[in-house]
Design goal:
The complex is a heterodimer of chains A (about 55) and B (about 425). With about 55 residues, chain A is mostly helical. Chain A contains 4 helices and no strands. In chain A, about 10% of the residues are buried. By secondary structure, chain B is α/β, with parallel strands linked by helices. Chain B is built from 14 helices and 15 strands. Chain B starts with 6 loop residues before the first strand and ends in a 5-residue tail after the last strand. The chains are: A mainly alpha (about 55), B alpha/beta (about 425).
Chain lengths: ~55, ~425
């Protein structure tokens, strides 16, 4: 996957978790926490979305 | 600060099965309009229940709704509406001096049942258990979600007091204001209990779950053919302040907290004790500096159980002898039993009587149980009264907890 692919996957997950956030101006070089109203549980949601089931065992 | 510091109500926000604002709620109570639906309860089929239809997205983003709980959502809605009602300029309020005190009957049942149901689809493998479970189920969740939504950095917690919780939330807040712990309090009671099947099952197996072909008639306190409780969700949150602070900012004062009592039966886990209930009411009156004759509305707890209604009437008959100016009503007949929110909602439904001069009835009485006949009981139709200046708000709960809260019209002696 390219960097842009990875960015889009993450943004897609965030769009699902936080549908009211404006993601149009998200910058790759700035921490997500500084750009969006995401808390620790949201970041855990992102990680869990991307963690294969086998890796959770 | 002292116990003599006067505490006043300056804002109210609520959601009830028949109203999402005080004017709407009050209007339906005076018009005799109940609102109980039939809902599907997991493992139990269809049952009558009081369902609220407030707009949860009015004060919450969809992410908050996704991460939080139903009762957290109810709490945020009610707190925000109370704030709007109070006239406070929120940006100017010192958030570290604001407290959130919410009464609950229970918390965590809904989320736990949902998760057990979810993982049952995966052979009960706990790796599928949500990481959201713990923050959703800690007992302070409803109050905590309010602080997160509103940026409040003062104290927050819930008060577990069974069905006396609504009164308990208000009493706790009044005490904290008198102690000087906070300068402003969001206080009341909340409940999401219709979303847990366990509570339905528990009441049904006690023989205490109400039923009727017409769900709006299923909650029938004092009726000879009453057959139990209708479970409902809801919330009512008040803004409480010390009188001098409310006066300083030119607040509209809705009412004044006059006195209270919480005591315990110490007899049975479920069956109420009328002697202790009467004791609770008398002590609240003494603390308020009032006599029974000074109470103009008694808002009863009565949940439409066979024995509970009779026990409360026995207690009231003992205290309120020769009180021709005292009216008695019941709000559960309209909205069912809102559990942790019950006392707080029921008080709210009666408060406008100070201004409009009406007493709303207890409805759904087709045949009054003679053991529940009380002088002053307002049956099926609202009545006008010449003098309405003090309300006694009764709420009693399991494990024998009793609460009596007296609220009076501001400005009267």
């Amino acid at each position: 996957m390219t960097k842009e692919d990875i960015k889009q996957v993450v943004l897609d997950i965030i769009a699902d978790i936080a549908p009211d956030e404006d993601l149009s101006a998200v910058k790759s070089e700035v921490r997500l926490r500084d750009q969006l109203s995401l808390d620790s549980m949201d970041f855990l949601d992102i990680v869990m979305e991307r963690t294969p089931q086998e890796a959770r065992d | 600060m002292s116990s003599k510091t006067r505490i006043v109500i300056t804002g109210i926000g609520l959601t009830a099965p028949n109203g999402n604002s005080l004017p709407e709620f009050r209007g339906n109570l005076l018009a005799g309009k109940a609102r109980i639906a039939e809902i599907d309860v997991r493992h139990m089929g269809r049952h009558p229940a009081g369902v609220c239809d407030f707009d949860a997205t009015k004060w919450q983003k969809r992410k908050e709704l996704r991460n939080g709980t139903r009762v957290g959502s109810i709490s945020i809605y009610c707190a925000r509406e109370a704030l709007g009602d109070s006239g406070l300029v929120w940006e100017s309020v010192d958030k570290s001096r604001v407290g959130v005190y919410l009464g609950i009957t229970e918390h965590g049942n809904v989320e736990t049942e949902n998760e057990i149901h979810n993982i049952s689809q995966f052979g009960f493998d706990t790796k599928y258990w949500t990481h959201h479970h713990n923050p959703r189920t800690v007992a302070n969740n409803p109050a905590g979600e309010v602080t997160m939504n509103m940026g409040i950095t003062g104290p927050h917690y819930t008060i577990g007091a069974a069905c006396a919780a609504g009164n308990a939330g208000l009493i706790q807040a009044a005490q904290m204001l008198q102690l000087g712990e906070v300068d402003l309090a969001f206080a009341g009671g909340v409940s999401e209990s219709i979303h847990t099947f366990g509570i339905f099952a528990g009441f049904k197996n006690q023989g205490a779950l109400g039923a009727h072909v017409d769900p709006t008639k299923a909650s029938r306190p004092f009726d000879k053919n009453r057959n139990g409780i209708v479970i409902s969700e809801g919330g009512a949150i008040y803004i409480l302040e010390r009188l001098e602070d409310a006066q300083k900012r030119g607040a509209r004062i809705i009412a004044e907290i006059a006195g209270w009592c919480i005591n315990s039966d110490a007899t049975d886990a479920v069956l109420p004790n009328p002697e202790r209930q009467a004791e609770c009411v008398r002590l609240a009156l003494r603390r308020a500096g009032m006599r029974p004759q000074d109470i103009h509305i008694v808002s009863t707890h009565a949940t439409a159980t066979a024995l509970g209604d009779i026990q409360e009437c026995t207690a009231l008959r003992e205290v309120f002898t020769d009180c021709p100016g005292t009216y008695i009503n019941n709000t559960k007949s309209f909205i069912g039993h809102c559990m942790g929110a019950a006392g707080a909602l029921e008080l709210a439904g009666n408060l406008p009587s100070f201004e409009d001069g009406w007493v709303h009835p207890t409805i759904n009485i087709d045949e009054l149980d003679p053991e529940c006949a009380l002088p002053g009981l307002v049956i099926n139709q609202a009545v006008q009264a010449p003098r309405l200046e003090a309300i006694l708000n009764n709420s009693f709960g399991m494990l024998g907890i009793n609460s009596a809260l007296i609220v009076k019209k501001y400005g009267v002696a």
